[in-house]
């Protein structure tokens, strides 16, 4: 049975039998000093602020028995899945694969590539390593979701207008109904976060819906 979540641009009919939570790239490489995000010149402290809200959302999903997926933006140690155009982009102090204070930047298995302890996966949850911004590109997530019979995705994570929005658009094009939790996502740039939220829900939810975590908690548990 669907539960109405107070969302924008209108209520989201959440079907808990068919939903999965997707937490995008809550990695040290994006949130902590010395990682990929900082190497591109970003103020990473903005991202740290949402960690308790993402943890609260994870706790809700676990209590409710939802499927949970965590993604990591990451590359193989030999960088064979990192296009030169991605590695050379920007004016980074450290590039993908370079040795940084938390190990090699954005490389699988390195300390900096790990998901933050406060929002780390637990047994039974699915972790997807993705070489691109979107979670469907060069991953097996489509097969996993099809096997589960998932039709709805609740999104959280970082950064709102890059990996979160790209993944949400990919999912929308594949027929999933998507809800982004507004206070469980963050950008290095407040104006980009707000613009991404507005774009997603514009034109009658052209990409999907947005709602604060409190709206989910209220609808599901009060
Ligand atoms: C970025 C991401 N911003 N996870 N990655 O490069 O959004």
Written description of the protein model:
- This protein has 9 helices and 10 strands.
- The chain has 222 residues and is α/β, with parallel strands linked by helices.
- The protein has a 6-stranded parallel beta sheet, with helices on both faces. Strands 1-2 form a two-stranded antiparallel ribbon. A two-stranded antiparallel ribbon has the order 5-6.
- The model has no long low-confidence stretch (mean pLDDT 97).
Summarize the structure.
The protein has helices at residues 28-31, 36-39, 45-48, 51-64, 84-87, 141-148, 160-173, 190-205, 213-221, and strands at 2-5, 12-15, 19-24, 67-73, 99-100, 103-104, 126-130, 152-158, 177-186, 209-211. It has 222 residues and is of the alpha/beta class.
Secondary-structure topology with pairs:
Blueprint: E1 2-5, E2 12-15, E3 19-24, H1 28-31, H2 36-39, H3 45-48, H4 51-64, E4 67-73, H5 84-87, E5 99-100, E6 103-104, E7 126-130, H6 141-148, E8 152-158, H7 160-173, E9 177-186, H8 190-205, E10 209-211, H9 213-221
Parallel strand pairs: 3-4, 3-8, 4-7, 8-9, 9-10
Antiparallel strand pairs: 1-2, 5-6
Order of helices and strands: EEEHHHHEHEEEHEHEHEH
Average pLDDT, rounded to a whole number, is 97
The level of helicity is 25-40%
SSE class? alpha/beta
The oligomeric state is single chain
Ends apart, CA distance between termini: 17 Å
As laid out across the biggest beta sheet, the strand order is 7-4-3-8-9-10
Shape call:
globular
Number of helices: 9
Main β-sheet description:
6 strands, parallel
Q: What are the key terms here?
A:
222 residues; six-stranded parallel beta sheet; globular; alpha/beta; 10 strands
């Amino acid at each position: 049975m669907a539960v109405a979540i107070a969302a924008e641009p209108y209520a989201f009919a959440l079907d808990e039998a068919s939903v999965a939570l997707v937490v995008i790239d809550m990695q040290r490489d994006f949130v902590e000093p010395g990682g990929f995000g900082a190497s591109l010149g970003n103020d990473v402290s903005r991202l740290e602020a949402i960690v308790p809200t993402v943890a609260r959302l994870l706790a809700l999903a676990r209590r409710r028995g939802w499927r949970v997926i965590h993604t990591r933006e990451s590359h193989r140690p030999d960088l064979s899945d990192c296009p030169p155009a991605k590695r050379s982009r920007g004016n980074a102090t450290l590039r993908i694969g370079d040795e940084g204070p938390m190990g090699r930047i954005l490389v699988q298995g390195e300390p900096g590539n790990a998901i933050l302890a406060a929002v780390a996966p637990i047994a039974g949850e699915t972790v997807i390593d993705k070489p691109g911004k979107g979670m469907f590109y060069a991953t097996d997530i489509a097969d996993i979701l099809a096997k589960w019979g998932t039709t709805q995705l609740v999104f959280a994570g970082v950064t709102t207008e890059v990996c979160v929005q790209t993944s949400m658009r990919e999912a929308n094009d594949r027929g999933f109904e998507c809800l982004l939790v507004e206070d469980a996502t963050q950008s290095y740039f407040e104006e980009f976060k707000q613009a991404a939220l507005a774009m997603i829900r514009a034109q009658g939810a052209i990409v999907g819906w947005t709602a604060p975590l409190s709206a989910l908690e209220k609808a599901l548990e009060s």
